[in-house]
Amino acid sequence: KFSIESELLLSIASFVWSYFIPLCCLLGILTNLLNVIIFSRDNLKNSIYKYLLAYSVADLLYMLISFAYFFGKYGFVANYYSIYSYGMRIFELYIFLGLATQLAVFMLLLIVLISLKRLIMVANYTTIKVHFKSSLFACLSFTLFLNYVFTFGRRIALIDRKRIKNLSRLHHNN
């Protein structure tokens, strides 16, 4: 049984998922595009700006994936067939849950690197050098490792559970 309060909460949640989150993603896309343009200028070649550029690109990709997911699943173009289609499930499983998770972990590690770089600059540690390419490679490697350990197995288990459910339904129908 649905009460008036639960129907109100469902309508608020539907509004947020359908309009508010895609709007936030669009604003994030625009601001990250501006950041990419600004941080890729020739006069901003310091390594801190390279980290900020890498963060802006990763966040731009994250916002693009999120916008496509929320708009396709909850937006006004979504219908029953598009939400439960095979393509949407593959996009949700591998792109939204897989790649977006990797991008989120990568951005978190970049924030840690930016903070360390700022600490080194403020504390004036001249003996410590942080190289952009090697630290970026380390962030990417660690991100892929964490994604493999913590999410890849879950996605495979999710696929296997769905496959088993579909096979059991087919078996019961025959």
Main sheet record: none
Q: Bin the strand percentage.
A: under 5%
Low-confidence stretches: none
- Rg, please? 21 Å
Distance between the termini: 34 Å
Q: Got a strand count?
A: 0
What's the order of the H and E elements? HHHHH
User: In percent, how helical is the residue content?
Assistant: over 70%
Number of helices: 5
Mean pLDDT: 76
Give the tags:
mainly alpha; 174 residues
Descriptive account of the structure:
- Helix 1 (4-39) runs antiparallel to helix 2 (47-74).
- Helix content is 85%, strand content 0%.
- The chain has five helices and no strands.
- The protein has helices at residues 4-39, 47-74, 80-83, 86-123, 132-173.
- With 174 residues, the chain is mainly α.
Write a short abstract of this structure.
This protein has 174 residues and is mostly helical. It contains 5 helices and no strands.
Topology:
Elements: H1 4-39, H2 47-74, H3 80-83, H4 86-123, H5 132-173
Helix pairs in contact: 1-2, 2-4, 4-5
